[in-house]
Each structure stands twice: as C-alpha cells, then as structure tokens.
Design goal:
Protein Transport Mog1p, Chain A; two-stranded antiparallel sheet; alpha+beta
C-alpha cells in the first residue's frame, strides 16, 4: 500500500508541469459573400433584383388567374424567401383583404416571437408602397413583407429556414437575408 501511495504522489507531482491557462471563449464566425444582385428575367407582372446566392428560383402558377408563387432558395444558408403575387385589378375589396391577410400572417408569429419590428416602405417613383416586418425570437419566419401599387399589384414575401427555429443560431443568416429582402422591395418595378 505504501508503494502505491508513493507512486501516486510521484505521478501527481510530475504530471502537472505547466500551470493551467484559461482558453478564450469560442465564437462562431460566419462569413457570407458580398451580395451580387442582378435583374430577374421571370415572366411575371413585376421584376426585381435578386442575389446570385439564391441559386434555385422556382416559379409556379397559383389558384387564381393572376396569382404566382416564387421561391428564392439559398442552399448555402439553408433558407428560402417565398414570394406570392396577386393581382388586385383595381378592386378596393381585394386590396383590403390582401392587406389584412398579410398583417394577420405576421401577427400569428406573436406566440413565439419576442418582438416584431415594422418598417414602412415607400418608393413613389416606382409606385411601390408596403411594410417590412422583422420578427425576433424563435418564430418560424424571421422576416416578412408586403408591397403594392394600391391599384393593380400586390406582393408578399416571407423568409423561412430548413431548421427548427433557434434565433441565436440563425441570426447571422437571417440578418444577411434581411438585406436581400429589403433589396427586393427597393428594386421592384411593376409591368
């Protein structure tokens, strides 16, 4: 037993040659490429500029005569911006209904959202008016918007990721795509 204790003391004395130094806290560093925008050539009643990082663009006709869906997929960021276009055809009732639906859609996220920021958007030159919503917290969609010319065109958009919502994890990608959404809003031109 004495030999065992002596051996244990020798091992303890010689095993700790250096003083322990604390390691700095590790932080995730995500870098995304600078946005490279180009005009879309989609056969839609509007056009906009999209980021080259959106490598998959899917379009589809929706139920209505003049309703379309556009998916801008960002595989590198594991997210998609979903756009939905609806024609108003100078119907005030349609416009009010579409505005109500877009605003209610954002409010549905209040159950999981910590906060919702809204930012009014106006571009009188191109007749584009709307609202941008940024949803904070573990909500399913981090950013949403709608734009219209108030007479003929209505477009909504929302951002979704292919993962369970965890705000801290998706924040860098959500911030990057928020800029793309705002750029879409700024570059929309109606046909």
């Amino acid at each position: 037993m004495k030999q065992f204790l002596v051996l244990l003391i020798v091992i303890i004395c010689f095993s700790c040659g250096k003083d322990a130094t604390p390691k700095p806290e590790a932080k995730l560093r995500l870098e995304y490429p600078e946005a490279n925008y180009s005009e879309t050539n989609l056969k839609m009643p509007f056009s906009f500029e999209k980021n080259a990082l959106a490598t998959n663009v899917k379009t589809r006709k929706l139920g209505g005569d003049d309703s379309y869906g556009i998916d801008l997929e960002y595989p590198a960021l594991k997210g998609t911006i979903y756009l939905t276009y609806k024609s108003i055809n100078k119907s005030e009732e349609k416009l009010i209904s579409y505005l109500r639906d877009a605003q209610n859609f954002t409010q549905e996220h209040t159950q999981k959202a910590d906060e919702i920021f809204s930012d009014l958007f106006e571009n009188p030159k191109n007749k584009v008016y709307g609202m941008f919503y940024e949803v904070g917290g573990n909500a399913a969609s981090q950013s949403q918007f709608y734009v219209t010319d108030s007479t003929d065109h209505f477009l909504t958009g929302s951002l979704y990721f292919y993962a369970k919502p965890n705000f801290d994890s998706i924040l860098p990608a959500a911030s990057y795509l928020k800029k793309d959404i705002k750029h879409i809003m700024e570059t929309i031109t109606w046909k």
